[in-house]
Amino acid sequence: MISYKELGLVNTKEMFAKAVKGGYAIPAFNFNTMEQMQAIVQAAVETKSPVIMQVSKGARNYANGTILRNLAKGAVEYAKELGCENPEIVLHLDHGDSFEICKECIDNGFSSVMIDGSHLPYEENVALAKKVVEYAHQYDVTVEAELGVLAGVEDEVCAAESHYTKPEEVIDFATRTGCDSLAISIGTSHGAHKFTPEQCTLVNGVLVPPPLAFDILAEIEAKLPGFPIVLHGSSSVPQEEVETINKYGGALKAAIGIPEDQLRQASKSAVCKINIDSDSRLAMTAAVRKYLAENPSHFDPRQYLKPARDNMKKMYIHKIVNVLGSDNKLG
Ligand code: G3H
Ligand code: 13P
Ligand code: ZN
């Protein structure tokens, strides 16, 4: 058993309580590589922000769970080396799909896990989440569960259509499972193609998607006052990154995300964790494509991964400061 406490990590309990009270959200950035970890830590330290580093099943398959755990341990030490005395870093399992994977992560240094039973019938979702919570809480590990289904096209997270969370179910679900936070479905979705152009309205030459269901969010908040709410699928898909990718040989068609002003609005509510993965992928790919197109004779990965890391860091800082509002919230 490796406790996250030995690694210098923290769970989400206090972090979320403060975020809900303070009207901001904690960034939950997915990571698969050392460069993403470095960029996340640099951004969190420079902005004095707590941060959740999250690992999907796909990330574990790609990079190996042991390596990712040690990268998270390294993240804590790196943050201290960069001058942050008491970093608040969570290592979180994103979209755990079984009790076994959650247990394995809890036993191996994760401070928080998500059990995603959102695709299951209600009673099965309750039973699975409750089982994970009972195990996790013995080790002071916090648990995120999900009600409602997000549409998505990611490798490991796939549903053809979304179903909004039913506010009438949330009290029963939170009470019976004992979960620490609840991911809800109010119109976000995974990946870089969240809406078709036909679903959007053209405003000053920009395609604006339909707004998130803030009425459902408000109903959920009214039922569970102060309870930590999580938004998945919250990349904004910056059009300048899409344009750079396409300018330098990419072929991303109609990539549309969640407008940042809506995420800013959500952050001020009980939404206290916002998941961002695709924007990091776009920032990395745009920088790598540009660098390699402009320097066709270069072949040292450090040459093109450095601008990729810098571009991700810039994006993370922007999210923390201008969208989620989690800067200067350490301590
Ligand atoms: O929610 C999904 C995340 O973006 C993780 O994606 O399963 O391809 O690593 P992934
Ligand atoms: P995006 O694809 O919008 O970045 O969402 C990521 C996510 O929800 C990870 O769980
Ligand atoms: Zn997700």
Labels describing this entry:
331 residues; alpha/beta; binds 1,3-dihydroxyacetonephosphate; 15% strand; binds zinc ion; eight-stranded parallel beta barrel; binds glyceraldehyde-3-phosphate; single chain
What does this structure look like?
By secondary structure, the chain is α/β, with parallel strands linked by helices. It is 45% helix and 15% strand. Helix 2 (34-47) packs parallel to helix 12 and helix 11 (278-294) runs antiparallel to helix 12. The two termini are 28 Å apart. The model has no long low-confidence stretch (mean pLDDT 96).
Tally the beta strands. 12
CATH architecture label name: Alpha-Beta Barrel
Overall outline: globular
Helix % is: 40-55%
Ligand list: glyceraldehyde-3-phosphate, 1,3-dihydroxyacetonephosphate, zinc ion
Summed up, what is this model?
With 331 residues, the protein is of the alpha/beta class.
Helix and strand arrangement:
Elements: H1 13-22, E1 26-30, H2 34-47, E2 51-55, H3 57-63, H4 65-81, E3 89-96, H5 99-106, E4 112-115, H6 122-138, E5 142-147, E6 152-153, E7 158-159, H7 170-177, E8 181-184, E9 201-203, E10 206-208, H8 214-223, E11 229-231, H9 239-247, H10 260-267, E12 271-276, H11 278-294, H12 301-324
Parallel strand pairs: 1-2, 1-12, 2-3, 3-4, 4-5, 5-8, 8-11, 11-12
Antiparallel strand pairs: 6-7, 9-10
Bound molecules: glyceraldehyde-3-phosphate, 1,3-dihydroxyacetonephosphate (13P) and zinc ion.
Glyceraldehyde-3-phosphate binds at residues 30, 56, 58-59, 94-95, 154-157, 190, 232, 277.
